[in-house]
Write a structure and sequence with these properties.
Elements: H1 5-10, H2 25-33, H3 47-57, E1 64-66, E2 73-75, E3 93-99, H4 104-116, E4 118-121, E5 124-127, E6 130-134, H5 140-153, E7 158-161, H6 165-175, E8 181-185, H7 190-200, E9 204-208, H8 211-224, E10 230-234, H9 239-255, E11 266-267, H10 276-288, E12 293-296, H11 301-314, E13 328-331, E14 340-344, H12 347-360, E15 364-369, H13 376-381, H14 387-397, E16 407-410, H15 418-424, E17 429-432, H16 440-446
Parallel strand pairs: 3-6, 3-12, 6-7, 7-8, 8-9, 9-10, 11-12, 14-15, 16-17
Antiparallel strand pairs: 1-2, 4-5, 13-15
């Protein structure tokens, strides 16, 4: 829990030496409270006070990094229970499980498919994040070979699944310096697993089916043993229980600053699923509440895409919607008599409209007005997409130099503005397009004319 300036002041030496750059220790404390100064600037703070201040300043949910390089998975460090309170920062890593009992050919083929999977949505490439390798064979050598094969086929981060310390060490040796997530430490093996986490500088998952008390006790033991990059697995008998327990973990970490549970979580949706479709439903729940790593047993692009879309939506800052640059966009080879449409610069609006224009096969001009990233109706309601702003977009775009007509098509949802826009744009004819983007193709082919 963050300390106030006065609480910080009580832990400072109170010498007013000015060596920190502030006139008094109280002024320095206020700077620390607002995160405008570093504690290291005080040369006389005691070790006890330093430990207390550093502990108080630590995030309620620790940031844990899985993997290395530009594809690493960063999870944790969240500050709210609900996205509308602020935003969520680190989206969960979605990984696909392979087993060392599968043939090398099957493992290689699946890993390649997962690594290659990428789709574009609202101008952003969305992908899967890693591979989980399970020691289903019970043999350390077989496990190590599977890990080595996976590592040779992908640069995605790894999650290694085995509760036998000797087998896990063999897998970690094959993984090299890739910093995989070790799964898992239990009440029976935690000391050996903690030693491996230290040796290989890797994060460690903590598994318990003894409720929050058992999970917190185990995580606290491991933290005190010197392993602080932990991921929690609060196993429960049902998806409903999992939802309740994970919500409790999040609230205890954020609202009560309960350090033993202040870590991100890992989930296995297949525990509660009898089909790939059910696994997808549980995974969607895990994305919303509050998984850091989601391990899938099934890779099906038709089921993965909805999960990636949901994740993108949940982890988009609601105060900073995804936007495209206000400009003139061309589709096909538009000429002087080609249609001119206008809409807002909310990315989802733009890409939806753009997709329908492209599908129509009609060469078209699309003018994107600056609505601060809001959709059509939202921008209209907020006064960000009104007649004055539409007219300004037309006048400043120089579109008049590119077209031979003076006809602008408004989105159907703001049809009521057509008269106002005509007043702002003398000499222009304002047409009303369809309300839904799916009808744009029919409009361009059958209704629009330059006259």
């Amino acid at each position: 829990m963050a300390l106030s300036g006065l609480e910080i002041y009580k832990l400072l030496p109170k010498t007013n030496c000015k060596e920190c750059g502030q006139p008094t220790c109280l002024a320095f404390a206020m700077k620390l409270a607002s995160k405008a100064a570093e504690l290291s600037a005080c040369p006389y703070v005691s070790d006890e006070s330093k430990a207390a201040l550093e502990s108080a300043g630590a995030p309620p949910i620790r940031l844990v990094v899985i993997g290395a390089g530009n594809k690493k998975i960063e999870i944790g460090n969240e500050t709210v229970c609900f996205r509308h309170e602020k935003t969520f920062f680190h989206q969960p890593g979605i990984v696909v499980r392979v087993k060392d009992t599968q043939s090398p050919e099957a493992i290689a083929a699946l890993v390649q498919k997962v690594s290659d999977y990428s789709v574009e949505r609202v101008g952003i490439q969305i992908t899967l994040d890693g591979i989980a390798v399970e020691n289903a064979s019970g043999n350390a050598q077989t496990f190590a070979k599977a890990v080595e094969l996976v590592k040779s086929k992908t640069s995605l981060p790894l999650v290694l699944l085995s509760q036998d310390a000797a087998t896990m060490e063999a897998g970690l040796g094959a993984a090299g310096d890739s910093k995989p997530l070790i799964y898992a430490a239990t009440s029976e093996n935690w000391e050996d697993m903690a030693a491996l986490a230290k040796k290989f500088n890797a994060p460690l998952a903590v598994h318990s089916n003894q409720g929050l008390s058992g999970l917190a006790t185990l995580a606290d033991q491991i933290s005190k043993a010197g392993v602080v990059d932990l991921v929690l697995d609060p196993e429960t008998p049902s998806a409903n229980n999992s939802l309740a327990l994970m919500t409790q973990v999040r609230r205890l970490a954020l609202k009560k600053n309960f350090r033993p549970l202040g870590f991100p979580m890992i989930t296995f949706p297949s525990r509660f699923a009898s089909s790939p479709e059910e696994e997808t439903i549980v995974a969607a729940q895990n994305i919303a509440k509050y998984s850091g790593v989601i391990v899938l047993d099934n890779f099906d692009p038709t089921l993965v895409y909805p999960l990636l879309t949901l994740r993108q939506n949940v982890y988009t800052d609601p105060q900073k919607p995804i936007q495209v640059k206000p400009d003139i966009y061309t589709f096909g080879d538009p000429g002087p008599n080609s249609p001119l449409l206008i809409t807002t610069n909310f990315s989802l609006t733009y890409f939806t409209v753009a997709g329908e224009i492209e599908a129509s096969g009609i060469s078209t001009w699309l003018l994107i007005a600056d609505s601060e990233g809001m959709s059509v109706l939202t921008a209209w309601a907020a006064g960000k997409f009104d007649a004055e702003k539409i007219a300004k977009a037309v006048k400043t775009s120089n579109i008049v130099d590119k077209i031979g007509h003076r006809k602008l098509v408004l989105p159907g949802f703001v049809a009521g503005m057509s008269g106002e826009v005509e007043e702002e744009l003398p000499g222009w004819k304002i047409a009303v397009g369809p309300r839904e983007a799916v009808d744009i193709s029919a409009y361009l082919k059958g209704i629009w004319t330059p006259n």
